[in-house]
Amino acid sequence: MRPGLLVGGLLALTSCGGTTDPAALPSPDAVVRMLGQGSRSNVAVTTEGANDPRMRAHVYPLSPVQTAHAVVDAIERLPRWEVVAGKDGVIWATRRTRIFRFVDDVYLLLLPAHDSTVIFARSAARVGKTDFGQNRRNLAELWEALDRQVSKSVNSKQ
Fold first, then answer.
1. Over the stretch 32-79, which tens digit does the pLDDT of each residue have?
2. Phi, psi (rounded to 5 degrees) for 127
3. How far is CA 90 from CA 93, 134, 155, in A?
4. What is the domain extent for residue 63?
C-alpha cells in the first residue's frame, strides 16, 4: 500500500462518526441510560465504589450551577478538549487525540447532593473497537483539571 493511501484512509476515518451539533445534546435520562450500559473496550463509565479512582463519580462542594461553571472553565484550559453543549445538568464535551484526531465524546451528569454536586461521567470513542485505555485517561485528565479548578473556586471564596 502506498503511504499516501494509508494517510488518506486515516484522515477519512477521523472525519467519520458522530456529530458535534449542540442540538444533539442528550437528556439527563438518556445519559443515565448510557451510564447504565457500563464500560467496554472503547467506553469508560464512572460508577460508585469503583476500584480505579478515575472510574468513580466525583463529588464537589459547590452547587450544580457553580460546578457546571467550573467544569466548563476546566475543559476550556485543556488542549484538544471542547465543550459542545450543556443543559439540565448534562455537559457534553469532546476530546481529540493528538495524532489521528479521533474524537471521543464525554458526557457529564451533574446531580445535586446536599451542599455538593456529584458528577458521573462517560467517555466513549466514536470509532474503533478498542481505545487502548484512552477513555480512562480522558476521565483522569478531566478529574485532575476539575479538581484544580474547584480548588481555585473554593479558595477564592475564603
1. 999 999 999 999 999 988 999 899 999 999 999 999 999 999 999 999
2. -130, 155
3. 10, 22, 26
4. 3-157
58: its cell numbers: 466525583
- 3-state SS, the chain, equals CCHHHHHHHHHHHHCCCCCCCHHHCCCHHHHHHHHHCCCECCEEECECCCCCHHHECEEECCCHHHHHHHHHHHHHCCCCEEEEEEECCEEEEEEECCCCCCEEEEEEEEEEECCEEEEEEEEEECCCCCCCCHHHHHHHHHHHHHHHHHHHHHHHHC
For position 62, which CATH number holds? 3.30.310.80
Convert the pLDDT of each residue in 13-45 to its tens digit.
333 346 678 899 999 999 999 999 999 999 999
* Number of domains comprising the chain: 1
Evaluate whether 97 touches 80 at the Cβ level (below 8 Å).
Answer: yes
Q: Which single residue is written with the C-alpha cell 478538549?
A: 81
pLDDT of residue 72: 97
Query: How far apart are the C-alpha atoms of 157 and 35, rounded to whole Å?
Result: 33
The model's pTM is: 0.85
123-147 pLDDT, tens digit per residue, is: 999 998 999 999 999 999 999 999 9
